[in-house]
Specification:
Blueprint lengths: L1 H36 L2 H25 L4 H14 L2 H18 L2 H6 L4 H29 L10 H25 L7 H14 L14 H4 L3 H13 L8 H32 L6
Helix pairs in contact: 1-6, 2-3, 2-6, 3-6, 3-10, 4-6, 4-7, 4-8, 6-7, 7-10, 7-11, 10-11
Length: about 280
Amino acid sequence: MKSTEEAGVLSARSRLQMAYRVFKGAFFFGRKGLIIWDSWEMWIMQIFITPIAQIGFFAFLSVYLKYPLSATQFIVIGNALQAMSFSAVFAVANITSQDKWQGTLPSTMVTPANRVALFIGRAWFQVLLSALIAGAGLLYAATIFGVSFAQADFLALVVVVMLTAIAMTTFGLLISAVGLYMRTALIVANVFLFVTMLLCGIDFPVSQLPTWLQPVAWAIPLTYGTEAVRMAIAGDSLRSLLGIIGWESLDALLVMLSGFALFTGFESLSRRTGRFEEY
């Protein structure tokens, strides 16, 4: 009995080690592939141009509409964080669609490698990129749009930005699962990006939404992240943000589990219908 238990422990440890190797390989290979495929100028533009374009549009629109300064700064902070969605959601959702276009999805799906580790590893680079985009947006908020960071708790701010990048990437992976069956997941990703701008407290408080829509807003991790970022800038400590951070983490976990279930279901369905090679 003891030897059987030890064998089970060793087997579980071996599986974890293999999953980690798959994750690490997928991360480094995916990062190199993306950097080789796209120029450094493209990455610099994505980090520094995307947030200023989005923030500037909504900030100047609020000025044109004669919003008070506090409302404009509310909008600036929200869009600084939401700008990460183009990487965290759109780019990650495109993983399966890109594999279809390149003709590598069938080969990827027949490999014995751990699916979760493989796709999370490929998405992890986008987590880092998303955090950089949000960081650039918050830098613009401080230097160009006059948002005061004098009382900000920067530790809390960094933790919230990183957590939100991870949480939104889980939504990207969930949408990516749809791409196993549909010809492309980008249609769903596009719709979701605009839904986040409408529901997640980016340009106006969630409390101003219709009552029936507010639970939908709080089902998206970005809603918690946006609220927490504003609180951290206002001076709330990491300890005081543990509640909202906990809810965001739980939301991200539920999204990840839903994405895994969706991925498994669509993988089985796509195998039966031959959708892996449809583009």
